[in-house]
Design goal:
- With 158 residues, this protein is of the alpha+beta class.
- The protein contains 2 helices and 5 strands; from the N terminus they run E-E-H-E-E-E-H.
- Strands 3-4-5 form a 3-stranded antiparallel beta sheet, with no helix packed on it.
- The radius of gyration is 44 Å and the shape is elongated.
- The termini are far apart.
Length: 158
């Protein structure tokens, strides 16, 4: 009798599904399969231990930073000032000295915002300026209109 169950491997059925499910185990995609019991807990604990922070601390001025606070592995340490007016980045160089870079936050330059009332007043002022210009042009004395003079042609008798 042939077994038609796809989950039951038979030599005649090459398309069988390998069921590695174990009750009580949970699937861990990092390992490519199921893990039994407490192994998943260790996996998630190891992931949280991988979190790295940038070394450094708040300082009042540049002189407070000691060379021992800068890691010698080539990574950068950041030291923001207490008022956050500057951030100092320090790292060891190949020649054994500490390189310091000072970052100063850029203050956005905002144009003073006009209130809607001020914008309306500006538009009214512009209209008044146009009216004054029109009225001043009307009151100017006009140049007299000079008709072009007709040139009389002299007839010459031949």
């Amino acid at each position: 009798m042939a077994n038609n169950n796809p989950f039951y491997p038979t030599p005649a059925n090459p398309y069988t599904w390998n069921n590695n499910y174990t009750p009580g185990a949970s699937y861990a995609p990092q390992t490519g399969g199921y893990m039994a019991g407490n192994q998943t807990t260790n996996l998630y604990q190891n992931q949280s231990n991988r979190f790295q922070s940038i070394p450094g601390r708040l300082v009042n001025n540049l002189d407070e930073i000691t060379p021992q606070e800068v890691p010698m592995d080539g990574s950068v340490s950041l030291f923001p000032q207490n008022d956050y007016s500057a951030i100092y980045a320090k790292t060891w160089t190949k020649d054994g000295t500490i390189a310091t870079v000072k970052f100063i936050p850029e203050q956005p330059q905002m144009e003073p915002q006009k209130s809607p009332l001020e914008e309306r007043l500006d538009r009214i002022d512009q209209r008044f300026d146009k009216l004054e210009k029109i009225l001043s042009n009307r009151n100017k004395p006009k140049k007299p209109y000079n008709k072009p003079q007709q040139v009389k042609e002299e007839q010459t008798g031949v």
